[in-house]
Write a structure and sequence with these properties.
NADP_OxRdtase_dom; about 40% helix; Aldehyde oxidoreductase; TIM Barrel; about 280 residues; oxidoreductase activity; alpha/beta; 10 strands; NAD(P)_OxRdtase_dom_sf; two-stranded antiparallel ribbon; AKR
């Protein structure tokens, strides 16, 4: 299974996202079962955020991981821009830790840029890391210009990862961002790695070339899309599913090795960008 190293921790390259999970009490048992299925299949990373369901996602994750040895988990959460100040961030992180039922998270991300000066946000992220409430910090929805600004700050290069939207149908980050991060040893976390809902319903999962590759390997279209994602070095994909069988499939996609011919077919269906594009966000 492919792996990624983030701030010295080696984790499987496919984890679990939790956006929209925890919103419906009737789905709680099914969603917890899905998280358990992912962990049992070999996943370690669970990605959540205080924004997701206004804390309901973190609460669900907390219930799902109760009793799971802490060293078998790699927990990521995120702070909202409105809470990314010196005055508010620690209270925000403490609330996340309480909902998750843990003493620390492995990675705490600045969810997207807001009005607080970047220098203030980074200084507080670094302080909370040194205080032991998170093992590492990073950013999300940052483009090259944002990262270049970040790297000018004293603690900026201590960022452990950047999380952005990336999938076969949204390849804009390949033009310059992935290369910049590789050059600066900054791992990339891909959210919506099998496509946003509209992409999946309209083309990605039904594309003839994707289906042809899936048939070659006797796997699902989702698994092909995830295998393509994690074929990029130092890339962690965090697909979300509330279905235990789908989660198992997602995690096992980390074992699928695409051939050069497979990748050529996928490139023909969804070509790489030839110019700088605006950063895709959801």
């Amino acid at each position: 299974m492919q792996t990624v190293t983030i701030a010295g921790s080696q984790v499987p390259a496919i984890g679990m996202g939790t956006w929209h999970m925890g919103d419906d009490p009737l789905l709680q048992a099914q969603e917890i079962e899905a998280i358990h299925a992912g962990l049992a299949t070999g996943a370690k990373v669970i990605d959540t955020a205080e924004m997701y369901g206004s804390g309901r996602s973190e609460t669900l994750v907390g219930k799902a991981i109760k009793g799971v040895p802490r060293d078998q988990l790699y927990l990521i959460s995120k702070v909202l821009p409105t809470n990314a100040s010196k005055a508010r961030m620690e209270r925000s992180l403490d609330a996340s830790l309480k909902r998750l039922g843990v003493d620390d998270v492995d990675l705490y991300l600045y969810h997207w840029r807001g009005q607080t000066p970047l220098s203030e946000t980074v200084a507080e992220l670094q302080r909370l890391t040194e205080a032991g409430k998170t093992k590492a910090w990073g950013i999300s929805n940052f483009d090259v210009s944002d990262l270049e600004e970040l790297w000018q700050l004293p603690d900026g290069p201590k960022a452990a990862a950047n999380e952005d939207l990336f999938n076969l149908g949204s390849r804009g980050v390949e033009y310059s961002l992935l290369g910049w991060q590789a050059d600066h040893q900054l791992p990339f976390i891909a959210y919506s790695p099998v496509g946003a809902p509209d992409q999946l319903n309209t083309h990605l999962g039904r594309n003839p070339n994707v289906l042809k590759v899936a048939k070659r390997h006797n796997v699902s279209a989702y698994q092909v899309l995830l295998a393509w994602d994690v074929s990029h070095p130092q890339l962690l994909a965090i697909p979300q599913s509330s279905n235990a069988d789908h989660v198992k499939e997602n995690v096992l996609a980390g074992n699928l090795q695409l051939t050069a011919d497979d990748k050529q077919l996928l490139d023909e269906a969804y070509p790489a960008p030839t110019e700088k594009l605006p950063l895709d966000v959801l």
